[in-house]
Write a structure and sequence with these properties.
909 residues; alpha/beta; Helicase, Ruva Protein, domain 3; 5-stranded parallel β-sheet; 5-stranded mixed β-sheet; 41 helices; 12% strand
Length: 909
């Protein structure tokens, strides 16, 4: 498994793009290798420790393959094993890493075009030359540009050689001359037609090992289309004028059309194109992508004229709102016209070229004047290009994220879906990867989050680290500043958004209430009202960074002398572990041990679910700190002195692996740390008597009820029914032995748990003396009460009453069936059953019959195939003994039930 994970790590490092953590997070590796996150994290941290991987302590924690990363940086960087923040690491890579994301500059690559690009990349990387692609879309949507970018992508991935070519052909030029098309594509020999004075290599030959892009493919005649799909079949072709020589070429074909391919293209050609992708028109792309296009295209014009450009808000609004039937191509021409017109009318030399409403193309002015939109929005205030960049770059990520949120929903079952989790991580990084700013606004939000967390988190039993407080502040600031840009998206999807909010209330009420409390605080303290969509975003941020302590039974805390020694150890350990495992209390030299003990007591009492506490201390008075904890709960405490980073990390990894506190103490002591441990196990756990049966919990419950009803008075002893299979598998490690002091096990079959007394139900049925009852209940009942309990048991466990209490069937009829079955089994097996086994079999078979009739029989049995192969005779005999019952009730006893019957007979004898 570790080797497989390392291969995935190498591949992810090879393909990761700057600032994108989706391929290098623990979540990705656990999903890819189909292991839980804890296991994936353990393997990855082992690779880091061995010097094979790099770790970046951010949320989520990132991992990179060291050697692969060195190669991507041309061996120019000596990497550290661990980086404390993502920003510093990405900035380092920015300087040295060879860029391979050719699509990053393509507007919409992570938005409306993401699906097209992902499918296209899979076609390009397909073995043996890739797969043919058909790009659909109206004129001007960018089909040619995407085809060109796919070639660049293939080059960056090493799929095409240095001499490979990208060749583009507009098929509309050959609509009336198919012969010329075939000559151009496949080549010709000298004399093939009038004017063919020499041999001519076709484009297929020139584009060998590269891409041939055929635009407007619908313009080709059926004959030309036929020649193409014959070439696609085997990669062979013949030149015009030569019907004997067969040529070979490996060319990836990318087709494009603005027409309906089902009408315009031959069916055989369509069948040979496995990847068909539709590129959206400009009107069908998010408005933020359109704004980014406007910015980028004007920026190109500014570079071309070597002058800054500003435009009025009114012009900007008209361009953004206008329907460009020619899509991006028409938008490009529109902005060129605006720039050229402004240059022509510019009277004086200025630092910036100013574009106003008069510089728009005539067709836009005419149309907008007629429909009244020319002066409907915006003003004459000028906007510099850099302000346009700020608007789209800061906001496109939140728009794209919420678009996906509405599309796929929040939850997969009762948990946030993994796809949304990945998108959320990308969005968080896009916000946190921006330049750090410490202006008044940022300080305001940081202060607000800190004070609000102090008030709300103890009440809701959750925690947040200092580092995550800063990240959360930045996210909240971004959310408040940008969520209004999703207003149109929210209006269009109001019902879906309301339903998403209701889902949070249904599936995660605790965090719903916490988010509501944050919204109220934001409204009260910052005078900002959070919308429904903003509420959902805020919920996801809170869920990500504010961790629930509700289920955390074991806590670990570092206590050291000095102002920040413990905090420093805690912060470093949590970063290296990639998780919030340790808390810390610093003890200034002048602080008395009593004061730090009070702080520790408060810490424990504020965590209501904590049952186990690990304390790591340095020396002196802190070594006896556990004796002064005044807790309002029952605690098991492990204390380690002489704390070191190595010791802290070892304990941290064990906690991540969910090892028990007793196991941690044992293994730490064996590892020869220079640390002395004190283990104070909670002795005040409730005592418990377990009831179990291989026939199921319901049977165990019935036996428990009979024993409870036999008690003459209530006693301070818990009765608990436990799953037999779990006890058999986990033995003394089962949860019940951790939660209670188990005084014994009562049941039909012994689960063989070491150091535990087992009392078979038969001992109660054939109660010869009071020894069993005294052993179990002697500490709770007097001699007279035990006598009364014995009388009650004899009444409940008489043969007819027993069957009546343990089954829903007619006891008289069932007893008769059981008697006949037992007689037949003893005769055929030639094994006389003693009275104790017979009584037990009455119970077992009576309940078995009930399960058969109610169709709730046992279907699983360990090594069932082995049992069937080795016990044919026993299976046949039992089947014969049940023949009458099976006929009367129209049931059939399965082999799994026969196997349990075999175990009972031969293990009890």
């Amino acid at each position: 498994m570790r080797e497989a994970l390392e291969k995935v790590l190498i591949n992810s490092t090879l393909n990761v793009s700057l600032g994108d953590s989706s391929l290098v997070s623990t979540h990705y590796f656990s999903e890819k290798c189909q292991v839980d996150r804890t296991t994936a994290s353990q393997y990855l941290n082992e690779l880091v420790a061995e010097g094979k991987a790099i770790k970046v302590n951010t949320r989520p924690v990132l991992f990179f393959h060291l050697e692969t990363l060195r190669q991507r940086c041309d061996n120019q960087v000596e990497f550290e094993k661990v980086y404390p923040t993502a920003n510093s690491f990405w900035e380092l890579l920015k300087q040295f890493m060879k860029k391979n994301d050719v699509f990053k500059e393509l507007i919409g690559s992570s938005g409306s075009l993401s699906h097209v690009l992902e499918k296209s990349k899979s076609a390009v990387t397909y073995p043996n030359g890739g797969l043919p692609i058909l790009l659909l879309g109206a004129t001007g949507v960018g089909k040619s540009l995407i085809a060109q970018k796919l070639f660049e992508y293939g080059q960056s991935e090493g799929l095409y050689g240095e001499n490979s070519r990208f060749l583009a052909v507009n098929c509309s030029e050959y609509a009336d001359n198919p012969q010329f098309f075939l000559t151009h594509i496949f080549g010709n020999v000298k004399g093939a037609y009038t004017g063919a004075e020499s041999n001519n290599d076709g484009l297929v030959n020139i584009a060998d090992k590269g891409i041939l892009f055929l635009d407007e493919i619908h313009c080709l005649t059926p004959e030309c289309q036929e020649k193409l799909y014959h070439f696609m079949d085997k990669g062979t072709y013949q030149q015009v004028g030569d019907n004997t020589t067969v040529h070979h070429a490996q060319v990836q074909l990318i087709f494009a059309t603005s027409e309906d391919p089902e009408i315009k293209l031959l069916k055989p050609l369509m069948r040979r194109i496995p990847i068909t992708l539709k590129i959206p028109s400009l009107d069908n792309r998010p408005v933020l992508e359109k704004k980014e296009l406007v910015y980028r295209l004007f920026l190109n014009e500014a570079k071309r004229i070597n002058q800054k450009i500003s435009l009025t808000k009114r012009v900007y609004q008209v361009i953004v709102d206008y329907h460009f039937s020619g899509n991006v191509g028409q938008l490009v021409n529109c902005l060129k016209v605006c720039t050229a017109s402004a240059l022509m009318t510019q009277l004086t030399s200025k630092d910036s070229l100013e574009i106003d409403i008069n510089h728009l193309p005539d067709y836009i002015i005419r149309e907008c004047a007629l429909n009244g939109s020319l002066y409907a929005g915006g003003s004459t205030e000028l906007i510099p290009l850099d302000l346009l960049e700020i608007e789209y770059s800061h906001n496109k990520n939140i728009y794209a994220f919420n678009q996906l949120l509405i599309q796929i929903g929040l939850f997969d079952g009762a948990a946030v879906s993994s796809e949304l989790e990945v998108a959320l991580n990308k969005y968080i990084e896009s916000v946190c990867f921006e330049e750090n700013q410490t202006g008044i606004k940022e300080l305001l939000y940081t202060g607000f989050i800190q004070s609000t967390c102090q008030k709300l988190l103890p009440k809701y039993q959750v925690t947040i680290t200092n580092d995550d407080t800063m990240t959360f502040s930045k996210l909240l600031s971004s959310l408040v500043a940008t969520i209004h840009l999703c207003a149109d998206l929210a209006t269009e999807n109001q019902l879906k958004i309301t339903k998403l909010k209701e889902d949070i209330h249904s599936f995660d009420r605790h965090y719903y209430q916490l988010t509501l409390a944050f919204c109220e605080a934001i409204s009260r303290e910052l005078a900002v009202e959070i919308t429904e969509l903003g509420f959902i975003n805020l919920y996801l941020f809170i869920k990500k960074f504010i961790l629930s302590d509700e289920q955390k039974e074991t806590r670990a805390i570092v206590l050291c002398h000095g102002f920040s020694t413990a905090s420093s150890i805690k912060n470093t350990a949590n970063q290296l572990l990639g998780n919030h495992i340790f808390d810390a209390l610093d003890m200034p030299i002048e602080m008395e041990a009593k004061a730090i003990a009070e702080k520790l007591s408060d810490y424990v009492n504020d965590l209501p679910k904590t049952q186990n506490l690990i304390i790591l201390v340095d020396m002196g008075s802190l070594e006896a700190i556990h004796q002064n904890i005044k807790s309002n709960k029952q605690l098991t405490i492990a204390l380690f002195n002489n704390v070191t980073m190595k010791l802290v990390l070892d304990i941290g990894f064990k906690l991540i692996a969910n090892e028990s506190i007793s196991s941690i103490v044992e293994t730490i002591d064996q590892n020869n740390y220079r640390s002395h441990s004190v283990f104070v196990e909670n002795k005040r756990r409730d005592k418990c008597l377990i009831f179990t049966s291989p026939t199921g919990i319901s049977m165990a419950d019935k036996i428990k009820k009979i024993i409870q009803n036999s008690l003459p008075t209530e006693i301070d002893l818990l009765f608990d029914s436990e799953d037999y299979d779990i006890l058999l598998k986990e033995k003394e490690k089962a949860a019940v032995f951790r939660d209670y002091i188990v005084t014994g096990v009562i049941g039909t079959t012994n689960p063989d748990i070491s150091n535990q007394s087992f009392y078979p139900i038969e001992d109660f049925i054939q109660l010869q003396d009071f020894e069993t009852l005294v052993h179990i209940f002697g500490d709770y009942l007097s001699g007279e009460q035990i006598q009364r309990m014995a009388d009650n048991i004899l009444k409940y466990f008489s043969q007819d009453n027993l069957v009546e209490n343990l089954t829903i069937l007619n006891p008289e009829k069932i007893v008769r069936y059981v008697e006949e079955i037992l007689d037949y089994l003893q005769k055929k097996l030639d094994v006389p059953f003693d009275s104790r086994v017979i009584v037990g079999l009455y119970i077992h078979i009576s309940c078995l019959i009930e399960r058969l009739i109610t169709e709730k029989y046992i279907t699983s049995y360990d090594n069932l195939a082995m049992f069937e192969a080795t016990q044919n005779t026993f299976i046949q005999i039992v089947g014969e003994s049940f023949t009458k019952l099976e006929k009367d009730y129209c049931v059939e006893i399965p082999t799994s039930e026969i196997a349990y019957l075999y175990d009972y007979i031969y293990k009890s004898q």
